[in-house]
Amino acid sequence: MKHIKLFEGFTNERAIPAEELASEKNVGLVIKTRKKFDLPQKVLVLFDFDRDAMLGYLDMEKLSHDGPYKVEHSAAEKNYGPDLYDFALMAAHPDGVRPSWEIRPAAQRVWEYYIHNRSDVRKTVLNKDDDDYIDHYSQDIEHEEEHDPEKLKMVNTVFYLAPSKEYKDLLEKGKRMWTKDHEKHMDPKTRQAYFKSKYIVHEAEGGRTKMKLYHGVKDPKNVDEILKRGFDLSRIHPIWTNDYAVSTMTSQKAVRAFFGKNVPVLELEFDGNLASYDDVSGLFGLARDARDYTRRVVGEGIDAVQLDSDNGAHQVFVYNPKAIKKITLLK
Questions:
Q1: Which residue(s) pair with 174 in the sheet?
Q2: Where do runs of H (alpha helix) occur along the chain?
Q3: For the stretch 109-132, what's the b/e string if a residue is b when 16 or more beta carbons lie within 10 angstroms of its beta carbon?
Q4: Smallest Cα–Cα separation from 47: which of 59, 74, 32, 29?
Q5: Taking a C-beta distance cutoff of 8 angstroms, is the pair 77, 55 a contact?
Q6: Using the 8-state DSSP alphabet, how is residue 273 labeled?
Q7: Three-class DSSP category at 271
Q8: What's the rounded Cα separation, in Å, for the pair 285 and 9?
Q9: Which of 9, 224, 294, 297 could tie 107 with a disulfide, CB 3.0–4.6 Å?
Q10: In this structure, are residues 171 and 94 in contact, taking their beta carbons and an 8 Å threshold?
Q11: Which of 100, 112, 139 is closest to 11 using CA atoms?
Q12: How far is the CA of 199 from the CAs of 43, 83, 104, 281, 318, in angstroms?
């Protein structure tokens, strides 16, 4: 079983010093500018020419000729993400870069880090009279409009960072070593396939995990149906990208603490491939919605994903109900 690790946002990572990157003889930065609806779009690829492999990529586009760039997609090997975002700001200079108004948690932390910890990054907050100002944002797959003042201010902030010597050195090396044979890495489908194939974190012993999980049934009327037919994901109305699944806990006590003592609790015998949240976090950036996310997770051979907790009991989302071999109602 392969566990895939991709990155859409880059926090909780140790950034590799730009000086260290620039000193690598065969690491370079390549930037391609294209047109999308007659507006510029930039694609950045940080490339290891020794291994003929990407270290990370990011694409961003303008929504108006005079406005800033907006990051669309990004992925990188661990610890290269922070540098990649810096390089994006430098590549967009002097126009600047702004967040997308479809905020994902990981991306939000990137911009918050710039706001609170990077005095070298200049910030300009748009006002309501600016053409590029937006009056709402969304955080979930249903794209419901939200208007929290602090987050609204964040998505209307433009970030600027002047090109550094290290950035220019990496760019020069990239131009010198990049050939037509490397152009395949600029294709979105090739980039996606590359990261899906390269980020194999570990092989689970035997390829499977057996464990008991516990599920609280909010509506007792559904208990008999679940016992007879099993779980049907089509009856689930997801709120978040990762919850089109059977939501379970590794402890019966934790389920009762969350739902109450009187809620019916089902014991599930799980036998399947289990991954950690970090192993599949990057699939958020590839999925169109919650159902597509579930299809992608199962498509990677993963039946369930565990979210670790410091409180002892862990939450486990089962994306493939076929991995639930037995269901028992606890007294």
A1: none
A2: 18-23, 81-92, 105-117, 149-155, 165-177, 188-198, 223-229, 252-259, 277-280, 290-299
A3: ebbebbeeeeeebbeeebeeeeee
A4: 29
A5: yes
A6: -
A7: strand
A8: 9
A9: 9
A10: no
A11: 112
A12: 21, 19, 22, 12, 22
* Amino acid making up residue 23: S
- State the Cα–Cα distance between residues 223 and 228, nearest whole angstrom: 9
Quick one: which of 16, 76, 86, 4 has its CA closest to 45? 76
Which domains does the chain possess? 2-201 (no CATH), 206-329 (3.90.228.10)
User: Which pairing describes strands 274-276 and 265-272: parallel, antiparallel, or unpaired?
Assistant: unpaired
Query: If residue 268 lies in a helix (H) or strand (E), which one and from where to where?
Result: strand 265-272
Per residue in 31-81, pLDDT (tens digit) is 999 887 788 999 999 999 998 888 888 889 998 888 999 988 777 777 888
Between CA 195 and CA 281 the distance in angstroms is 13
- Classify strands 97-98 and 69-76 as parallel, antiparallel or unpaired: parallel
Distance CA 138, CA 51 (A): 39
Residues 6+ apart with CB under 8 A from 147: 135, 136, 137
Phi and psi at 32, nearest 5°, equal -115, 130
pLDDT for position 169? 97
Question: What percentage of the chain carries pLDDT values higher than 70?
Answer: 83
Q: Which residues pair with 306 in a beta bridge?
A: 276, 316
Q: Nearest to residue 40, comparing CAs of 69, 19, 14?
A: 69
3-state secondary structure 32-44: EEEEECCEEEEEE
